[in-house]
Amino acid sequence: MVKDMEFLDKFKIKMHNPQLLDIALTHSSYAYEHKLKYNYERLEYLGDAVLELVTSDYFYQNTKYSEGLMTVKRANYVCENALACYAKDLKIDKLIKVGVGQQHNINNTIIADVFEAIIGAIYLDQGFKVVKKYIDTIIIPYINDDRDFNTDYKTKLQEVVQPSKQEISYIVVKETGKSHQKQFEVVVKIDDIIYGKGIGSSKKEAEQHAAYDAFLKYVK
Description:
three-stranded antiparallel sheet, elongated, mainly alpha, 9 helices, 54% helix, Ribonuclease iii, N-terminal Endonuclease Domain, Chain A, 3 strands
């Protein structure tokens, strides 16, 4: 148990109830094999909400971004890839307790879930002020470096457009070259208005470039 909490020393966090952290590190497969009552899933639910609030507060207080851009920025720093990256930097992934059959499959989903569960545990044990400092200390350096954890701009565009219930469509407007050297030009429309154009060696690549072009225009 003591070793499990060592990564919190750098944040000067001393858990009053160490069992909360132990639960946050326990996967359902381990709990099942060892007949334990709890695993990290409930703490993950709580940690997810706390993480979203803290990152939302940061962008609201420290930037002049539009609502749409704040939503996109927040999504980038709380996505699965981002959370798994933070956890691995802290070597949290080495502390996760899983069942025998899961030992070779501790993937980013599990690692990200545990990261959120730990946030939930710290919140319950230490309160909002301490967990906010913990989250800010971890994430703000990545924000300052403008780290991009999600390069799927079709998804990003969908995320910012979705609240307004507008429809997105991708249309191939030009196709050139021989079969082995094709080049595609794609436009992306939002409610029948062209927002972006992209060129690529495949439809998928062209669509991503078009989505990136539209994304930059839409969130301004």
